[in-house]
Amino acid sequence: MSGNSYGELFNITTFGESHGEALGVIVDGCPAGIPLCEADIQKDLDKRKPGQGLAGTKRSESDTIKILSGVFEGKTTGTPIALVTFNENQKSQDYNDIKNVFRPGHADFTYHMKYDGNRDYRGGGRSSARETLARVAGGAIAKKILAKEGIKINGYVKSIGNVAVNEDNFNQKDIEKVYENELRCPDKNAIIKMEKELKNAIINQDSVGGVVEVIAKNMLVGLGEPVYDKLSAEIGKAMLSINATKGVEIGEGFAGTKMRGSIHNDAMQVKNGKIKFLSNHAGGIVGGISTGEDVVVRVAFKPLSSIAKEQNTITKDLKNTKIKVVGRHDVCVCPRAVPVVEAMLAIVLVNALMQQKARQF
Ligand SMILES: Cc1cc2nc3c(=O)[nH]c(=O)nc-3n(C[C@H](O)[C@H](O)[C@H](O)COP(=O)(O)O)c2cc1C
Asked: How far apart are CA 214 and CA 229, in angstroms?
């Protein structure tokens, strides 16, 4: 009911605030016997860490993860896995200005109203995207379970502002290597233009949005539960629960509305006894159930709220005022959101996989 947990069979419950003592996650439902150490989780957390690149906040945190329970002699025990990281680089004084003033586009106003004024305003408290660190930690475990079935998940930045990748300029191998560049983008030409877009936003004391695409490869057929728990519905919920998301597309998504059925339908063939789809406009899901083709999802991120440009707003005691948000904020969320989107898809797919295995029992 309180909205801090996701997943039925593989469940994550996250806790902590941006400038509180610690942030963490309880992962319940992980099978026993999976090799797991802190380094397995840390490598994903390092991809989300603040302080990297032109788009990111200059807040520098090591985000070092500690396993508190659920792992013994290097393997999961089937009991709840508690993971925690202690906050290090809080500059809460940066946030004194927003103690009594609501940042337009941030969750200050809605949290204030919902919780009768009881809100940790420092760094956005619980509404801060530091919470996504806990999702990435849980997702690292989900990815290990999926890897046992051969399922692999890779995300990348598809667009920043008006600059999008050109799909002719890269291949799957480039997507697998996106963490080698700070924009997490597989198209070298687009990176140059994206950097210009970011510099322009910085000069104008503004922020910029974008799109992250994530692909699950080597999928199994049959994941997803009709009718209300369709795989697509679960993906939609999981992605829209990430901070700053404003839209989710699967396969052709909204572009599909401009296609004819004769093009959008993924024609089928049998070749050497094997089922083959001749295209994947559906993004790997039909009837809410995976087809075995790649699951392809795109997530739209808005331009972030915290900008240094002056804006109109109001105070807690209902006075008109102006605000310039200073402090260390991301200019574009997309590069740091890539591992978060990957983690949420992994958690959705692990749940769908476990449900399907339970059905086959
Ligand atoms: C990885 C990540 C980093 C973010 N960093 C910032 C930030 O530096 N400044 C900011 O205003 N919002 C940031 N956000 C977005 C806010 O957390 C979000 O806009 C806010 O909680 C309001 O919620 P909503 O945009 O989902 O409606 C970030 C989001 C993500 C996913």
From this structure: 20
Peptide bond into 25 cis (omega under 30): no
The continuous run of DSSP H or E covering 175 comes out as helix 172-176
Q: How many domains does the chain have?
A: 1
Residue 287, SS3 per DSSP: coil
Axis-axis angle for helices 38-48, 334-360 (nearest 10): 140
| Residue 331, ligand 1, Cβ within 6 A | no
Q: Which atom belonging to ligand 1 lies closest to the Cα atom of 336?
A: 1
Q: Which stretches of the chain drop beneath a pLDDT of 50?
A: none
Q: pLDDT tens digit string along 281-292?
A: 999 999 999 999
pLDDT in tens, 310-334: 999 999 999 999 999 987 788 999 9
| Ligand 1 atom closest to 106 (CA) | 22
Residue with tokens 């801090």: 4
The finding on whether 243 has its CB within 6 A of some atom of ligand 1 is: yes
- Which residue segment(s) compose the domain that 220 sits in? 5-359
CATH code of the domain covering residue 335: 3.60.150.10
168-202 in b/e form (b: 16+ CB < 10 A) is: eebeeebbeebbeeebbbbbeebbebbbebbeebb
Query: pTM of the predicted model, to two decimals?
Result: 0.96
